[in-house]
Amino acid sequence: MTVAREVELEGHIIDSGTMETAFSIIMDMGGEFDVETFDIGRSKTETSYARLTVTADDEATLDAILHELHQNGANPADPDDAELAPAPRDQVVPPGFYSTTNHPTDVRVDGEWIPVEDPEMDCAVVVERGAGTRARTAVLNAVEAGDMVVTGEAGIRVDPPERPRESEGAFGFMQGGVSSERPSESTIEQVADAIVETTREGGDVLAVCGPALIHSGAREDLARLVRAGYVDAISAGNGFAVHDIERDLYGTSLGVNTETLDHARKGHKHHIYTISEVIRAGGIEAAVEDGLVESGVMYECVVNDRPYVLAGSIRDDGPLPGTITDAVEAQNAIREQAHEADMVLMLSTLLHSVAVGNCLPSTTRVVCVDINPATVTQLLDRGSAQAVGMVTDIGTFVPILAEKVLGGAGADSGH
Amino acid sequence: MTVAREVELEGHIIDSGTMETAFSIIMDMGGEFDVETFDIGRSKTETSYARLTVTADDEATLDAILHELHQNGANPADPDDAELAPAPRDQVVPPGFYSTTNHPTDVRVDGEWIPVEDPEMDCAVVVERGAGTRARTAVLNAVEAGDMVVTGEAGIRVDPPERPRESEGAFGFMQGGVSSERPSESTIEQVADAIVETTREGGDVLAVCGPALIHSGAREDLARLVRAGYVDAISAGNGFAVHDIERDLYGTSLGVNTETLDHARKGHKHHIYTISEVIRAGGIEAAVEDGLVESGVMYECVVNDRPYVLAGSIRDDGPLPGTITDAVEAQNAIREQAHEADMVLMLSTLLHSVAVGNCLPSTTRVVCVDINPATVTQLLDRGSAQAVGMVTDIGTFVPILAEKVLGGAGADSGH
Amino acid sequence: MTVAREVELEGHIIDSGTMETAFSIIMDMGGEFDVETFDIGRSKTETSYARLTVTADDEATLDAILHELHQNGANPADPDDAELAPAPRDQVVPPGFYSTTNHPTDVRVDGEWIPVEDPEMDCAVVVERGAGTRARTAVLNAVEAGDMVVTGEAGIRVDPPERPRESEGAFGFMQGGVSSERPSESTIEQVADAIVETTREGGDVLAVCGPALIHSGAREDLARLVRAGYVDAISAGNGFAVHDIERDLYGTSLGVNTETLDHARKGHKHHIYTISEVIRAGGIEAAVEDGLVESGVMYECVVNDRPYVLAGSIRDDGPLPGTITDAVEAQNAIREQAHEADMVLMLSTLLHSVAVGNCLPSTTRVVCVDINPATVTQLLDRGSAQAVGMVTDIGTFVPILAEKVLGGAGADSGH
Amino acid sequence: MTVAREVELEGHIIDSGTMETAFSIIMDMGGEFDVETFDIGRSKTETSYARLTVTADDEATLDAILHELHQNGANPADPDDAELAPAPRDQVVPPGFYSTTNHPTDVRVDGEWIPVEDPEMDCAVVVERGAGTRARTAVLNAVEAGDMVVTGEAGIRVDPPERPRESEGAFGFMQGGVSSERPSESTIEQVADAIVETTREGGDVLAVCGPALIHSGAREDLARLVRAGYVDAISAGNGFAVHDIERDLYGTSLGVNTETLDHARKGHKHHIYTISEVIRAGGIEAAVEDGLVESGVMYECVVNDRPYVLAGSIRDDGPLPGTITDAVEAQNAIREQAHEADMVLMLSTLLHSVAVGNCLPSTTRVVCVDINPATVTQLLDRGSAQAVGMVTDIGTFVPILAEKVLGGAGADSGH
Q1: Is the CB of D272 less than 8 angstroms away from the CB of B122?
Q2: Which of A209, B297, D75, D167 places its Cα 20 to 30 Å from the Cα of C142?
Q3: Where does the record place the LOR/SDH bifunctional enzyme conserved domain (chains A, B, C, D) (predicted)?
Q4: What pLDDT, in 10s, does the model give residues C199-225?
Q5: Residues in chain D whose Cβ is within 8 Å of chain C
């Protein structure tokens, strides 16, 4: 005896790969399929529609197949409402809870499809019934006893974004694998175009920055981009801020003068002295206001009122006042930044980029830059449809980017 | 005014991605399509069939689209014969010559489809008419004045292998990107199974080896695999052979004792002494027969009559007698090895692996092992349908592989 | 007018490089020297002694030179007492505070040399006068108002450990750069010997573990080493513990079955389900006691009472109960582990390895294993005199290590 | 019974590390030493002098120690003449032949010290007695029957260059390990300064180039440096030249338009068409003269009469006419280039860089640029005293370098 259910696919399901994926899932997972209806888009502007009957030997297999099909955009032909169950206590979800993708998602409640707010991977979906029924994502540690959590597979519709075509604007430019053998300057030019376009449209650009950016001498150019309004927010760690300010106070980063390349003897202590001085001043804002700190990325953030999050980590010295040392609190601050960003630059930091990437919907534009191809690959694997990666040197990338963004536009552009 | 032509696709064209690829090519290259017929395979065992009319603004665009479609398995609905033109002189092809893929290919001559012998990338196709008409690939430097070379796009049929399903035996095991975060021992076990299976079926396993294999201490285990008949041929460079024999004569590889890890002072001269001694003996075979060399990979090749090719390169010391110093001659020797191999292990050498990979049809099983993820990615990008990559340490890979292959089977297995 | 001071060097100051370093520092920093006395050790067992007069143009330069000489083992010929100043408030050090190296260090208080407890990099030295005067390191955030903190350069004696000779036991084995072209199995054997030796002498082995260890299939073998008493403590993050337990509950790590290599569809949700189940059970210990978790590294830690620290980070899902989410608290827990360790294995994690490394004195034995050479280089650069690095695959390293450690000794060895 | 011999050291033997090295060698190799005389340079301008008696248990050990000491600048106190023996036949050296370092070396013939011409690693020294006695290096395959070859350890004096101080000009700038976390633009500026300085002094700059340079879009800027006379010679392979010319003929490199980033469909065939066109034209020079090729690096070489060597390899398509396919012949051409170069830029090619590096004396300035840190490390390990390495993106390095070199100086500078 076998069990069966019908699913539907709609859209550019062939050239987006959706159809291929659906067939593969069913076969790989031990199911069978019959194509009941197939209306192919006869030309490139028409969408296609398919209805399949999926068959499996038992309910468990069928459920697994349907779950996987959902997540890839094949939805039940005649959907039920989503099943809801209360969270038994804080941070504990009901058995069989639905764990989200980062794609736009709807859940069916009382016969109506409700969009899930702030799509994010690996969350629960909490439904709040009422005048206006809402559905929102909740990370495990934000689930509260009594929250109505979606369970099972029914009544959930996932809409993975179709892959952009090569010719579709700035983000069609890099398809396929990660390689350092790409035309570097031309690629940076396209990233610059995308930043300018995002800014013109009133969008926000978030830069996620690692300390290597400072060590490699790119600090002044990033500061210019912040000042000119092309980078609207900074997500970083204590180390980034320390070395940024060290450069201001001592002319060094990790003890190396980034202009003359001199190793200041005693210079490896500069970062500790820097932290101590900022604590003495009462924090980063106070240090800027007192005139202790007079340049750099953090300085421009304070002076131009660009929000920043400094998340603590176990390798920090200090940390600087204002660093959020609790990982859960820091994640919440990062989540807020991520939800506001329309474009994210991930610049030479794996830890912070993963943290930000975890909170992003698959529709946000992402650019990952690192000299280690494995880092770029790992970041691109997280499922953004609009992510591009570049294996290059952050110390040359940022200066060239700043020149291409600011060159024609002047310093007072942006917002 | 537009121009149009019909093409056909047949097979598992949806789940193999062929259909998606065809649609993408046409749209990316500025063409249009109409789906004239589409018979979908209604279940996973049935194949599908599609006939499309491809339209473009001019002949040049249409030609380019059709060329690209060919190479991906979409063939003209009503094929003409292939066009042939004589090579004007040695090493010079006629204008517009057809440059091959590494997929199985047929050319239509006098109304009949002739399979092209030894499919290999980036070659010309030479047709020899006669009692039995033949078509064969020829690298540029092997083209001779008067050879009848296929030109243009007509009368050529390419059949790219469908991607294997996950469940289809040993080579379904690794799909997707290259990562070092895969289960290492289990992956090696599957490679071992594939070697044993290939050997049992009478197939030939070719190992392409870099000197790192010797430096990392894997020499003895590779020698055991050669002796036991699981590695049937060796493709390497002068350096590999020198360090293999250095280990025999001096107990070192590049001057390091691979067992005790002692740096033999003076040891960095051992490889020069080794070359000199082998030259004195009259070559590798003579050195083995004289009893000068008593162990190692080259020793086992000589004693067990396994063919090897040592290709010279510009970084060689020496080189050892028997090294083929001319690159074109060496390629020809490598090509012969590659055509005889049923499975190829690429072990820690980019140069030799690319050289061998260039000569392989897309249907040969390939395993690429390197500690540098960029090397593995580059090798896998060369278009084999049956290639798997592993980012691991050759110095632990080969010992574990040898144990898994030889463990149950004993030393006298293989052939 | 110039200023001058005398410094002394003692020990194997030539072959340990101390003399060379001292000369280089003085010349690089713009000073001059006169060798007043030089008694060379006439044979390899005799130590040497040198007294130099260091001259500079001004006090600032001389101070900088003397500071640098101190840190490299050249101490003032007639030392003064260390200068002490009270910390003005919590987390704020007095101006010119002395920032520590990770070498054994003494400070001179009331004419007597007091060893600084728990040497650690980038700390302040706090002196507690009294019946028994003590000196201890304090990280910035542990400095309290009124603490007497060492400032300036006087009265501080640093004793950098001499580099071990090649022949001196297990840790003489790897000198020089980081390379993947080392004999892998033999190197692992020497690491195994060092672990067995450390354990026999009653020392503690701390393993710092990243999640790649689980993904790459090395979990069972690390669990065996914990069970057998060769790994005494674990330092890791939430991700490591989650995937370790995921493997127990679902047979997967990040959704991949580490034995069969099957990608469990839906498997990418397993880690979320795992966290939820452990929260439901009330924590890791409870999950083991309830019989929910029955194998793995965390299981062996609980059952065999091996202490572990799980430090939170901003990329965590969950996290699991027991994860220390505050970075400063987590550092304190890590610091305690680090101080108790006699040997540290850093296994495929940069973040946690740096955190542990920050707390280690330069005399602790350290083994760094990673497939990324840049990670190994970065870890070795942190100044341990007894650190060895290995660029290899953690998924093959741990199994071979376990076999070499446990092979002859049996499962009940260790403590 | 023990054997003993006296050796001398002279120069800045402490701060250059020579003394430390000598002590280490003797002790590591099981010898003993007595310091007979030690006159220390009392200030930084004075050199030191030491005479040691080295003792060992047997002649073999003593010989080994003395050999190693030689190579590191400790020479016998009362030297004998070098021993000479005739090569028994072509390519075969007499037993115990002396294998060279790449340091300046003298051999003692008839009581006189003769400098060895063209110092190069891993060669034999051939002495030609006569009116003016000469000594020259010979690679194994250049040794001819009857050549008088230096054997044993006596009568050879090696003078390893002292490491440059940090402050000594452009090449003092990068000491220590290889890292991507260095200030990129400032480092490139210093490389630019060194190129300008070398050119001003009439020296020759040799660029060793891999195809990644073309793929990454740096071709036009390298061409400018050739045209302006800052790059005097090119050492590359067939692939570099093919892609350089492909960019001219088709606007692509490996089929990618390096400006628009479009993947020309059919573009992966462009390199084959390029080769065929150049063969048809009769070679690169002819293709330039005929007006077929109108831009690029090879074009500038032809037009400005800069010598180039294209060395063949087994991965070549074609190759282009003029490529030297025999590895031994190609090495000889490379050797000639290397001997004429005063500064060498190794740009994104391991194979060709190793080949050139093998032929360089340790006194030539070398800059190694690659995005893979393992490549840079491997190249720097080859023993140049004046080598600097940079882990960066060749596609951004060359444009910035060109701007810094050509910015102020204009296009007609250089020679």
Answers
A1: yes
A2: A209
A3: 5-103
A4: 999 999 999 999 999 999 999 999 999
A5: 14-17, 19-20, 23-24, 26-28, 32-35, 38, 40-44, 165-167, 177-180, 373-374, 377, 381
Amino acid at D38: F
CB D59 within 8 A of CB D66: no
Nearest to B32 among A19, A44, A373 (CB): A44
Place of tokens 């943290």: A355
Q: Which residues of C touch B374 (CB under 8 A)?
A: none
How many angstroms away from the CA of B29 is the closest CA of chain A?
A: 10
Closest-approach residue (CA) in chain C for D52: C42
Distance CA D250, CA B327 (A): 27
pLDDT tens digit at each of 415 positions of chain D: 688 888 888 887 876 778 778 887 887 788 888 877 777 766 666 788 888 889 999 988 888 888 888 878 888 887 889 999 999 989 889 988 998 989 899 999 999 999 999 999 999 999 999 888 999 999 999 999 999 999 987 888 888 776 554 444 445 444 445 566 778 999 999 999 999 999 999 999 999 999 999 999 999 999 999 999 999 999 999 999 999 999 999 988 777 777 777 656 556 788 888 999 999 999 999 999 999 999 999 999 999 999 999 999 999 999 999 999 999 999 999 999 999 999 999 999 999 999 999 999 988 999 999 999 888 888 887 666 678 889 999 999 999 999 999 984 444 444 4
Residues from chain A that touch B377, judged by Cβ atoms under 8 A, are 177-179, 373
Structure token pair of residue D344: 């060498």
Contact call for C314 and A334, based on CB within 8 A = yes
């278009």: which residue's tokens?
B383
List, as one string, the DSSP characters of C209-267.
E-THHHHTT-HHHHHHHHHTTS--EEEEEHHHHHHHHHHHHHSEETTEETTT--B-TTG
In this structure, the strands spanning B105-109 and B112-117 are: antiparallel
Which residues in chain C are closer than 8 Å to A139, comparing Cβ atoms?
Answer: 317
Residues D119 and D339: beta-carbon distance below 8 Å: no
CB of C241 closer than 8 Å to CB of C321:
no
Burial class (CB in 10 A: 0-12, 13-18, 19+), B68: buried
**Which pair of tokens denotes residue A113?**
């499809």
CA-CA distances (angstroms) from residue C60 to B58, C55, C152, C153, C176?
A: 78, 12, 11, 11, 35
Contact residues, chain D, for A395 at CB < 8 Å:
182-185, 392
Which residues in chain A are contacts of C65 at CB distance < 8 A? 265
Cross-chain Cβ contact A183/D216 below 8 Å: yes
- H or E element in which residue A233 lies: strand A233-237
Q: Which domains does chain B have, with CATH numbers?
A: 1-78 (3.30.70.2690), 79-161 (2.40.420.10), 169-409 (3.40.50.10690)
CA-nearest of A392, A16, A40, A367 to A192 is A367
Q: Would you say C358 and C122 are in contact if contact means Cβ atoms under 8 Å apart?
A: yes
**Chains B & C: contacts with CB separation below 8 Å:** 119
- Region class of B168: left (phi > 0), else alpha (psi between -120 and 50), else beta: beta
DSSP 8-state code for residue A171: G
Compare CB distances from A265 to C29, C140, C266 and report the shortest one's residue. C29
Q: In the predicted model, is pLDDT for residue C359 greater than 90?
A: yes
